[in-house]
Amino acid sequence: MTAVRELVRSVSVRKVDATHLALGNRWGKRLGRGPHEARVYVQLDGTAALDVGGEQISLSRGDIAFLPRSDAHVIRDQPTTRVHGFGACPGMQRTDDDAYETDGDVDGYMIVASLHHGAEAPWLDLLPAVVSLPSEKLAVAGWLRETLDLLRHARALPESSREAIATSLAHVLFTQAIERIESRQDLLRDASIASVLADVRAAPEQPWELSALAKRAGLSRTVFVERASSLLGMPLGTHIRALRLARARELLVTTNAGVKEIAARVGYANASAFARAFTRASGTSPARYRESSILHDVKT
């Protein structure tokens, strides 16, 4: 099952919105499913009640609730509080760019974060609607709270740094979700494929052949392609190209290697083919991408 967790590494966070809430009196909010995002609730103090996927979870100081797909849910001060319609809590006032407070005496504090990952892979639907991390799991929960608080105060950091921190956060949270379903037969069925995909991810520059990969998974080429594409939410060839270009972007920013060298290091036979693929996917040439990244770091 460890190999299945490699699927988590295909999730990268494009944007994170973290908000601090100071809560008092009666409050509640109903939210619809968020497109291509996950949501995290961290109860810093006080209590709250979360209803999602037919499950009701009580949150107390230090508890964390993770919604991998940001399914439709209700968050409120207690289960008996009625919540009508969608939108912000009544009486909620903005006190800072990323902070809100309700009317009345404050008796609870919460951090809410939306992780916009853009992933469409069907394996996300295998995950539970909510993963609860009680405060006693301090080894994980404590780190998550500190990371979310860092993101909330990290406006001065370069966007690339914020994305890297948020992606690491998402990987931990999604791994927690997968641990909840390690006995699920529908996921176990594809463990051999996930193992092969882990090898592909580790070395996307290699000249992978579908027939060879299928053989390693113990499947016919047709079945392997169908099930791998189903897990990834895209054709395997498209996934490999995305991995190669992601590695290329990293090399452009973190090394002084020339475009020709980077093309070779990520699996392209020549620099021209690499430049065309990179420009098509990124909307800019490799040279200009590197240039804009350097300018951004200088400004920040």
From TrEMBL:
Residues covered by the HTH araC/xylS-type domain: 194-292
Superkingdom classification of source: Bacteria
Pfam families membership: Cupin_6, HTH_18
Keywords: DNA-binding, Transcription, Transcription regulation
MF-aspect GO terms: DNA-binding transcription factor activity; sequence-specific DNA binding
Cross-referenced PROSITE patterns: HTH_ARAC_FAMILY_1 (PS00041), HTH_ARAC_FAMILY_2 (PS01124)
Annotated coiled-coil segments of the chain: none
Annotated TM spans: none
Name of the protein in question: Transcriptional regulator, AraC family
Highest classification ranks of the organism: Bacteria, Pseudomonadati, Myxococcota, Polyangia, Polyangiales
